[in-house]
Amino acid sequence: MKPRYNLILAAAASACIAACASAPKSNEELETARAVVPQIEASPRAGVAATNIAEARKALDRANQLAEKNGKDEDIKFEATVASRNAQIANEKILSAMARDEVDKGTAERQTVLAEARAHEAQRNAQQAQTAEERAKALERELADLKGKKTDRGVVVTLGDVLFDTGKATLKPGAYATVERLAAVLKEDASRKVLIEGHTDNVGSDEYNQGLSERRAQSVQAALFERGVEASQISTVGKGETTPVASNDDAAGRQQNRRVELVFQEDRSKVASDTG
Amino acid sequence: MNSSITRLAGPLVLAGLLAGCSGVSDLTKERVARSETSVQQAQQTVGNSEQGALELQRAKENLDAARKAIKDGKEQPADRYAQLAQLDAELAVSKSQSAAARKAADEVLASIKTLRQEAERPSTSTDSQPRTTEDK
Fold first, then answer.
1. A63-95: b or e for each residue (b if 16 or more CB lie within 10 Å)?
2. What residue in B sits closest to A75 (Cα-Cα)?
3. Least CB–CB distance from A117: residue in B87, B102, B115
4. What is the distance in angstroms between the Cα of A159 and the nearest Cα belonging to chain B?
5. CA-based angle A61:A67:B65, to the nearest 5?
6. Any idea which fold A136-275 has?
7. Does B75 touch chain A (CB under 8 A)?
């Protein structure tokens, strides 16, 4: 039933075309207006250009009426042109409105992306902080076999009196394995800094003890240099008998006080302040 | 506005006068004058930019044709050319404005794209500050 209806329509249309063919040549402006006006009327944003769209429709209706009544070609052309121009203006207004919507939406989205970027940066900073923490822990682990102790000054490794000849600054061969390990730890990460502190017991003059503590600290430093540690990683200080860790009243306590301490720190400024 | 008085009184008074007169009505002359103003404004909006230049040119041509029609005492052509000049001037302005709006939208979209790329970029160096914060 439907196909037959379409056939009838087609027949009617062809009849119309045949009739029209004999009429004055079809107006190009009118064809354009007939195409563009309904298009712009169907736009979802037609509301922003309602006046122009209404003007376009009125002009197109006038043009159509003139065409029906075999009006003058120039009159049809004029009305059709007015219709087309209004439709074009409406189109540009709609495009403007859509672009402004995009700007608004984009500005809001930009804020979101900015917030995301800041969150990302914060996360990155947190990761860096975590890395520093992990580095400190790794250092502690590596120094664990050297009996490194974590203190508020950093990780401290103590070289006992038995590693030095009595009253001398020379390292005994028994210290070499330890020094090798210390050098390896420092060479592994050039940002690691160590402060070498020499200490003595209270036997002998202050002056002598000060000198001995300095020489012993420098002796360890020289051993580390020989094994390829950068000079910038090491600083030394002699503390003499000023900082005992045990009583000087008995032999065992005095032996504990005769020592060299290596203070490992990540932060150079703290090492520097300790030397002062 | 005195134009509204003219608009009401004009046709009544002038209808008789015009019957034998070859001159163009004040109403049409006014319309041409308004179009002239619109074309001048369009010229300022469009400036030297490409968008709307063609329509502005067409508006000027229609305006010239309207002036010529006034000189020749042709009422209807003067009125129609003035209307077309008016429409083309409006179209030139709206084209220029929509091009500017499009440009602004494209810039925002491009800046978002750049921001996204920077935000999603894996952290390579610790000293790289995100450029994103400075243009806020």
1. bbebbeeeeeeeebbbbbbbbbbbbbbbbbbbb
2. B80
3. B115
4. 37
5. 85
6. 60s Ribosomal Protein L30; Chain: A; (3.30.1330)
7. no
Q: Give me the amino acid identity at A224.
A: L
Distance CA A78, CA B80 (A): 7
Per-residue pLDDT of chain B (136 residues; tens, 9 = 90+): 455 555 555 554 444 444 444 588 999 999 999 999 999 999 999 998 899 999 999 999 999 999 999 999 999 999 999 999 999 999 999 999 999 999 999 999 999 998 888 777 665 444 444 444 434 3
Alpha-carbon gap, residue A179 to A176, rounded angstroms: 5
Tokens of B56: 């502005």
Distance, first Cα to last Cα, chain A: 107
Nearest CB among A92, A110, A128 relative to B112 is that of A110
pLDDT at residue B135, as a whole number: 41
CA distance A81 to chain B (A): 8
Q: Where are the beta strands (DSSP E) in A31-153?
A: 149-151
Cβ <8 Å between A82 and B87: yes
- Kind and range of the H or E run holding B47: none
pLDDT digits 0-9 by tens, A137-174 = 888 887 887 888 888 888 898 888 777 777 788 888 88
ipTM: 0.74
What CA dihedral angle connects A108, A114, A120 and A121, to 10 degrees?
-160
In angstroms, the Cα distances linking A54 to A107, B25, B54, B96 are 33, 27, 25, 22
* Every domain of chain A and the residues it spans: 18-101, 136-275
Q: State the amino acid at position A155 in one-letter form.
A: V
CB neighbour class for A190 (10 Å; exposed up to 12, middle 13-18, buried from 19): exposed
CB A114 within 8 A of CB B115: yes
Q: What are phi and psi of A57, to 5 degrees?
A: -65, -45
Q: Are strands A193-199 and A259-265 parallel, antiparallel or unpaired?
A: antiparallel
Distance (Å, rounded) from C-alpha A184 to C-alpha A224? 9
Task: Please name the residue that has the structure tokens 């970027």.
Answer: A117
Question: What is the C-alpha to C-alpha distance for residues A29 and A80, in angstroms, rounded to an integer?
Answer: 6
pLDDT, one tens digit per residue, over A213-255 is 999 999 999 999 999 999 999 999 999 999 999 999 988 888 8
Distance CA A38, CA A57 (A): 8
Check: CB of residue A117 under 8 Å from CB of residue A229: no
